[in-house]
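Same chain as my last thread, 302 residues:
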Amino acid sequence: MIPGIQQLRTIGAFSRLLASAAASSLRPGTGFDLASCPRLAGTVPRASTRTLARFVERTGGDPDLYRAPGDSFFVPPTFFAAWALPEFARVLAVSGLPFNFVRTLHAASSVQVHRLTTCEEPLNFTASVEAVQRTGDRTRIDLKLEQIALRGQPVLTATLSLVLPSRRKGARRAPELLPESATRLDSLELGPSEGWRYARLSGDFNPVHWSRSAARLSGLPGPIAHGFNVMTRVCHVAVGKLAGKLSRFGMLEVAFRKPISLPATLGLWTGQPDAGTGRIPLWVAAGPGAITLLTGHVELVP
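reply #2:
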């Protein structure tokens, strides 16, 4: 996978998505049928050891956590975010959903690893719209990406949940505060140019992440961090400090509660595993008692 070509693919896919959304919004009475939404399929682009190590380093991780025998490299769980955005955009564009995606917010994501893969293994993928939920003027769209081995077994499942917020101002949900009992796992340091750095890495050039003017036009005080950038950094810490090694990582699920304005100096916090499920809670916040900007959990395997 050549980074420059990947960036062009992402820009092109999102341009087509916005054009198709604009066209469908001009057709009065346009509805949608989830059952008719197509499932796209394709080949996962290959990434070299150097590309994967660069991805890990530039998202605050330790490449040694992902090194495989024989000078190979295991694919990081959240690396799908570096190549799959055009596929998510493409499946939305062909779905015919009659929405304006300009103001779309990244609400939540998850990644589940069924089996570790290295950069040499050829894989296929499918991408689909799994659910569309309307609550008043607010719409949530859930998408799924599945990476599949050549023999047909799934090796990784990832989800992306988007929210199209209402333009009406309704009652605000009370913010969730970080418990006083939370334990600090690691720091989360994001510089003022982090939005542009991750845009170049992933191809996601949404200007709210790197342009102060664009962010303010969207009602934000300034640029905000990419959701997948934050999720990837959380994943690195979960692998290194909770799982201890990549083979024990099972699943990570996160929900973005508040935008993370750049620059940011925050902490990644954890608590006691759930007695029933074994899930380990995660939060991103400034400190105990502060508003949580991200909540989630990680599941480990024996």
